[in-house]
Amino acid sequence: MAETIRLELVTPVRQILSEDVDEVIAPGVEGDLGVLPEHAPLLTALRVGELAYRIKGKLEYVAIVGGGFLEVNNNKVIVLADDAELGHEIDLEEAVQRKLKAEAALESERKADEKTFKAVEIELMKELIRVQIAEKYKGAK
Amino acid sequence: MPGVMDIKRKIKSVKNTQKITKAMKMVSAARMRKAEESMTNARAYANKIYELVGDMAGRVEADSHPFLTARKEVKNVCLAIITSDKGLCGAFNSNVVKKTLAFARENQDKNIKLVCIGKKGFDFLGKKHFEVLSKYVSFGGKVTYDEANEIGDKLTEFYLSEDVDEIYIVHNEFKSTAFQVAKVTKVLPLSLGKKEDAADDTDYIYEPKAEALLKEIMPRYIQFTVFFSILESIAGEHGSRMVAMDNAARNAGEVINKLTLTFNKARQGAITKEILDIVNGAEALNG
Q1: pTM, whole model, 2 decimals?
Q2: Are strands B76-82 and B166-176 parallel, antiparallel or unpaired?
């Protein structure tokens, strides 16, 4: 039995990850799901959230900021995300700034029609996730 | 024979032109490298999503998503034509235009509507009798995923509202730096067909249900197809311009050589004439 599972994370703009990992924890639309080596074939949609993977016993985090899909097949996890950022690449200060801006935008769009409000809300959610993940790496820097 | 000064002036102007074409070639070369890079980066995603959609479409029934169902009567066809905003890139744009016109000729029974991406295509085809649904111009040789999404969503909208029954993309496929082929690709409806090989039919766990998943995947698939086509087109545009400018610079070199020869001849002729005059004058004095 394989001890690791291949994790590939790609966005339309670049390939972000391609590594053998011990475990993947992904934000599925119907709840978080953990994927261990030799997982059965699976296809799921992802929501905006945090994707974690364990590599050599250490947990690493990736911000999935845009939704996407996750496919498990042949001991391979393929994540297709609209946009994603590695945790240690996010600058906390910048992330907080952007979050504040998104909050302000949400406030000013409160009276707008539902569609724009939803869009702004999603933007804020993305920024929240970025901040959350950046904070996890705060001590490491 | 033109005067010596005239030729000199002409050489100078051709030299200037050559300088410009050389500079443009360099710029295009740099831009193309960049465009090619973003294309390579996107290719990983391209392979995966095409595989995913292909696999899924092969496993589900054809009527489980509107994008997979071919309409019985195809009256309105939408062509998304991707060209460049700027000219001076050889046959790059005219190939796309020609392809579009050929397509229109073959499908005369259908009503053809256009979505123009890039200024050149709009300038040329918009003035013909085609109906232009929307146009996207001057994104300046660069495209972000969000911009492409907007176009993709628009196409999806046209399709779902039954404004159009089929959507094609006409763009230059990037084969290599010097070689692009204009191609018509059918985008909607997807005609992948149910797969025959049962070995591929692994019992997938779908979360949520396959139909719901398709609803998520399909719009992304369309968006990405548009994005990738534009990336390809941009890389092709710069490649094509590079080649065109290289040719122009070389031609200018030839013209300069020819003009220099004429210039030297004219100069030599003038000197000979002067010597003759002097010799004749001296002889007249002696005689």
Answers
A1: 0.84
A2: parallel
